[in-house]
Automatic annotation (TrEMBL):
<protein>
    <submittedName>
        <fullName>L-rhamnose mutarotase</fullName>
    </submittedName>
</protein>
<dbReference type="InterPro" id="IPR008000">
    <property type="entry name" value="Rham/fucose_mutarotase"/>
</dbReference>
<feature type="region of interest" description="Disordered">
    <location>
        <begin position="71"/>
        <end position="95"/>
    </location>
</feature>
<dbReference type="Pfam" id="PF05336">
    <property type="entry name" value="rhaM"/>
</dbReference>
<dbReference type="InterPro" id="IPR011008">
    <property type="entry name" value="Dimeric_a/b-barrel"/>
</dbReference>
Length: 106
């Protein structure tokens, strides 16, 4: 099982909206995340907009590709893209670059 951690930056003027969107994640999106192999998925948001994501999956690239093929993901990415800084033309899910794990206490 791969443990994947990534960072994104939510625009400070969109933090409240971003929190609200995640208080009621669409059931179809939840189902797609699970069906495409993401487990134990968490997002943590600092008051300055730093977003830390964590998930576990058998194959991160396969999970990413599976989500990319869903209609619900396309709608979600279009909806949330304006909330992020520094995407350089990428969708938020494309900007999720895994950090290198340097320590894990099992």
């Amino acid at each position: 099982m791969q443990r994947v951690c990534f960072l994104l930056k939510v625009r400070e003027d969109r933090i409240a909206e971003y929190r609200e969107r995640h208080a009621a994640v669409w059931p179809g999106l939840r189902a797609a995340l699970t069906a495409t192999g993401r487990h134990n998925y968490s997002l943590f948001l600092r008051d300055d907009g730093l977003l830390v994501g964590y998930l576990e999956t058998e194959d991160f690239e396969a999970a990413r590709a599976g989500m990319e093929a869903t209609e619900v993901n396309a709608r979600r990415q279009a909806e949330t893209a304006p909330s992020f800084e520094s995407l350089d033309g990428a969708r938020p899910d494309e900007a999720m670059k895994p950090l290198t794990e340097v320590f894990h206490l099992a």
